[in-house]
Write a structure and sequence with these properties.
- Pfam families: OmpA (PF00691).
- Keywords: Coiled coil, Membrane.
- Residues 22-56 form a coiled coil.
- The chain is an alpha+beta fold.
- It folds into 2 domains: 1-58; 62-211, OmpA-like domain (60s Ribosomal Protein L30, Chain: A, 2-Layer Sandwich), CATH 3.30.1330.60.
- Helix content is 56%, strand content 15%.
- It has helices at 2-74, 98-101, 111-125, 153-170, 195-201, 213-224; strands at residues 83-88, 91-97, 130-137, 178-182, 203-210.
- The protein has a 5-stranded mixed β-sheet with strand order 1-2-5-3-4.
- Helix 3 crosses helix 4.
């Protein structure tokens, strides 16, 4: 009886140990299952955000392409060496030569240039979600007739950009959408080593950028919203 009692106690202790081990294993499994569920939820959240972001980027690209097509169509009578429409860095650039817009040293837009800007403004009126930056550029030839209002190429480029901004707003585009800036001689598109290249640098670029409100909202939500947890 004593031997049987000892065997029973040994078996009971072994059973208790095994039950404890099973309890720990069950707790570990539940913890792992919770962590897996959390990871799955996080993955689903990230996949949904990625899908949303991909769609927003595709919508933005389509908006830029549609804008370029609309502008190109409206200005098809002017395109050539005097006016070019191109896409760069997700924006639409309308590059207008000095020959189309201004007489040498002048800040008043010629009638042909005014007509081109009128056509452009008509397109922009139908595109309320597009911001407009007007950049004036010059060659590196020093301004030869400084006045109290215009000392150098900085002034010339700024005043030309401002004049174009006024004409675009006169065409019906809201002024709060437009920024006028002058870049002087410092962003050339060709070396200033020949009359032809200098003519290329004497230009005005109108940069059209669709507003990215939806895309920015998504990026902001990605940085401020945590993935859901269970």
């Amino acid at each position: 009886m004593a031997d049987k009692s000892a065997d029973y106690n040994t078996v009971a202790k072994d059973l208790a140990r095994r039950e404890a081990e099973l309890g720990e294993l069950d707790a570990s499994l539940k913890k792992n299952r919770t962590e897996i569920d959390k990871l799955n939820a996080d993955l689903q959240f990230r996949e949904a955000k990625l899908t949303e972001l991909t769609k927003a980027l595709a919508d933005k690209d389509k908006a830029v392409n549609d804008l370029k097509a609309s502008v190109s169509n409206a200005l098809r009578g002017f395109q050539g060496t005097e006016l070019q429409v191109k896409m760069k860095d997700g924006k639409v650039y309308v590059s207008l030569s000095e020959q189309l817009l201004f007489k040498t040293g002048s800040t008043k837009v010629d009638p042909k240039g005014q007509e081109a800007l009128k056509q452009l403004a008509a397109v922009l009126k139908t595109q309320p979600d597009v911001n407009v930056v007007v950049e004036g550029h010059t060659d590196n030839v020093a301004f030869s007739r400084p006045t109290a209002a215009m000392q150098d190429n900085w002034d010339l480029s700024v005043l030309r950009a401002t004049e174009i901004a006024r004409l675009i707003t006169a065409g019906g585009v809201e002024p709060q959408r437009i920024t006028a800036s002058g870049r002087s001689q410092y962003i050339p598109v060709a070396p200033n080593d020949s009359p032809a290249n200098k003519a290329l640098n004497r230009r005005t670029e109108i940069i059209l950028t669709p507003k990215l409100n939806e895309l920015l909202k998504i990026l902001d939500s990605n940085s401020t919203t945590a993935a859901p947890t269970k």
